[in-house]
Recover the amino acids of this structure.
């Protein structure tokens, strides 16, 4: 059987979609991550325009290699990179709180330093059209309105996750009383929280009612409640809309540890004879 370039690209997209669902299930529902180490050296999907229109050639991108700062960069790749950084930090912090991971100060300090460096590298790799600016925001909104491809959706979700990761990073610094490496020691946790909340809220506000129809609203609201930032009146409105849409109380998601259902053994119709 001969596989075409489209066949290979679709296979890569299926692989990375499953990986993304695994990460987000762990982040928002505390679903356990697979114990078996996965091969994450698979090439990342190409950018959305190339995938749908094949208008140009693209450079190969990989998860742990900074993205090329070009116009034709994988939006899914950027989303996967920041989601992986966020999930890695959350996994370490949760393990520390639950007593199943490194609880000593030195281990958390290493996690904080690694996360700061990873986020800095990720931000530096962003091309102008995927940075969070007023110009790029308007561009991505116009693309989101036409539903031309998944690029705009990836853009909004990656910046929500980036802000969410900054919230977790700020709390981790406070836990070990270490100031941000890129800010003076007097920089307060409250300022970091406020800036992150403003970014998340600006994204959801820009998207309007469309945000509640998918993962974007969950990704936006869960970290706000988790870090004690859910007291804004508009957040209460979005939460009510989420409850009406999906039939669950959003603030309960992040603090309800959900164990995966155990498979039930069916009674066998075959009886082992006695010897």
């Amino acid at each position: 059987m001969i596989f075409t370039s489209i066949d290979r690209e679709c296979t890569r997209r299926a692989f990375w979609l499953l990986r993304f669902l695994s990460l987000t299930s762990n982040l928002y529902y505390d679903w356990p991550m697979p114990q078996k180490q996965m091969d994450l050296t698979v090439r990342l999907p190409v950018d959305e325009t190339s995938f749908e229109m094949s208008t140009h050639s693209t450079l190969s991108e990989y998860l742990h290699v900074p993205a090329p700062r070009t116009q034709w960069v994988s939006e899914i790749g950027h989303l996967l990179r920041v989601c992986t950084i966020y999930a890695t930090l959350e996994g370490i912090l949760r393990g520390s709180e639950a007593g199943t991971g490194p609880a000593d100060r030195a281990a958390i300090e290493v996690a904080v330093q690694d996360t700061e460096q990873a986020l800095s590298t990720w931000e530096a790799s962003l091309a102008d059209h995927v940075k969070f600016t007023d110009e790029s925001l308007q561009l991505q909104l116009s693309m989101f309105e036409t539903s031309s491809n998944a690029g705009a959706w990836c853009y909004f979700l990656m910046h929500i996750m980036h802000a969410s990761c900054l919230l977790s990073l700020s709390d981790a610094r406070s836990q070990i009383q270490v100031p941000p490496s890129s800010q003076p020691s007097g920089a307060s946790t409250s300022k970091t929280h406020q800036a992150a909340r403003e970014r998340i809220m600006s994204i959801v506000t820009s998207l309007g009612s469309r945000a509640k129809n998918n993962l974007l609203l969950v990704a936006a609201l869960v970290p706000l409640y988790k870090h004690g930032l859910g007291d804004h009146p508009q957040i209460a409105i979005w939460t009510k809309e989420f409850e009406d849409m999906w039939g669950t109380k959003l603030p309960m998601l992040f603090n309800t540890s959900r164990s995966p259902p155990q498979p039930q053994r069916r009674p066998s119709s075959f009886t082992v004879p006695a010897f």
The two ends are 50 Å apart (CA to CA). Residues 7-208 form one domain. The CA atoms of residues 222 and 249 lie 11 Å apart.
